[in-house]
Amino acid sequence: MTEAILLVGGQGTRLRPVTVNTPKPMVPTAGVPFLAHQIARAAAAGVTHIVMATCYLAEVFEPYFGDGSDFGLSLEYVVEDEPLGTGGAIRNAGQRLTGGPDSSVLVFNGDILTGLDIAGLVEAHRAADADVSLHLVRVEDPRAFGLVPTDPDGRVLAFTEKPQTPEEIITDQINAGCYVFRRSVIDSIPAGRPVSVERETFPGLLAAGAKLHGVTENTYWMDLGKPESIIQASADLVRGVVPSPAVPGRRGESLVLPGAQVAAGAKLSGGTVVGAGARVEAGAVVQGSIVLDGAVIGPDAQVNASLIGARAAVGARTVLDGAVVGDGAVVGADNELRAGARVWCEAELPAAAIRFSPDA
Q1: How many whole angstroms separate alpha carbon 324 and alpha carbon 339?
Q2: pTM, whole model, 2 decimals?
Q3: N or C: which terminus of the chain carries fewer CB neighbours within 10 A?
Q4: 28-40: buried (b, 16+ CB within 10 Å) or exposed (e) per residue?
């Protein structure tokens, strides 16, 4: 049996207004809450018991996922009254684990989409007889991440959390947010206070001589910390760029959920999702976007790489490119929103209020 801890306590402030009513891991991605993809992939890799560490809007998780039986595993929930950080959350959730001190525990973040071979990571951890194993990926610009250099055998040499100077960038390998812990290591994390696994736990273990093993697998990897990342991840799941057993339909250029209406002459492409009860009017062109439940895309609107919140409305001939429209918001006809524009939940933007010059 493989047990896992799933960290889902973050507030997702960088994603607002997407996360005003919905915690980041529950944002619909390729037709289902993002967590459904993670849980389904974990179950497919042989995980049989997951402890979900929750905090922000904790009450929304259990009504959707229940006891986990629909995914073929056992699911429990631990709620933090106050945020405990990554390490504190792992320690807090560890009280629900059932394995012995030498058992392997998968730990993963609720905001990372990856094609990682989960079973392979667990097997590499056991083969290395490591105290902690970390999934590492290589990125072109590592400045926003934690750097993890390793020796030729994969042994971790150091941790540099979000380097501030060029001299600190000593590797392009970054912490990819998925780990395998020896159970006894989890039990050694201080209880009852905030702990950062990246800044305190891992450096402390390294200084104490523990064996930390890095597994570099250059697979699909996306940190869903920004709206554009969620939009891209959803499109990639729909198109089958990264696999997930939880996608509720065939892979292709679009996914139209039951109850949605797409008028004749409307065009969907690029991994677009149209949620239940949503409507796309005639002449609209929607590319690589998320249209959530009950939203309306008006006639001849153009929507590209954007997220349209639940029950929101986009007026006729409006152009959205890289925009986010919050739940229940109304964007009137003949507007043009580009380059990261965000419309807050329930806000109303009059017709022709914002236009961009072609030379801008």
Answers
A1: 10
A2: 0.91
A3: C
A4: bbbbbbbbbbbbb
Question: Tens digit of pLDDT for each residue in 185-242?
Answer: 999 999 989 999 988 999 999 999 999 999 998 889 998 888 999 999 999 999 999 9
Q: Answer yes or no: are the C-beta atoms of 188 and 182 closer than 8 Å.
A: no
Q: What's the number of CA atoms in the CB half-sphere (13 Å) around residue 136?
A: 24
In degrees and rounded to multiples of 5, residue 174 shows phi and psi of -125, 155
β-pairing verdict for 112-114 and 132-138: unpaired
Sign of CA dihedral 275, 276, 278, 279: positive
Is omega for the bond preceding 163 within 30 degrees of 0, making it cis? no
Residues in CB range of 127: below 8 A, 6 or more apart: none
Instruction: Render the burial of 115-124: b for 16+ CB within 10 Å, e for the rest.
Output: bbebeebbeb
- For 81, phi then psi, to 5°, come to -70, -35
CB 61 within 8 A of CB 36: no
* Cβ atoms within 10 Å, residue 13: 10
Two tokens at 163? 């380097």
Strands 285-287 and 302-304 turn out to be parallel
Task: Find where tokens 């064996």 sit.
Answer: 211
How many CB atoms are closer than 10 A to CB 207? 8
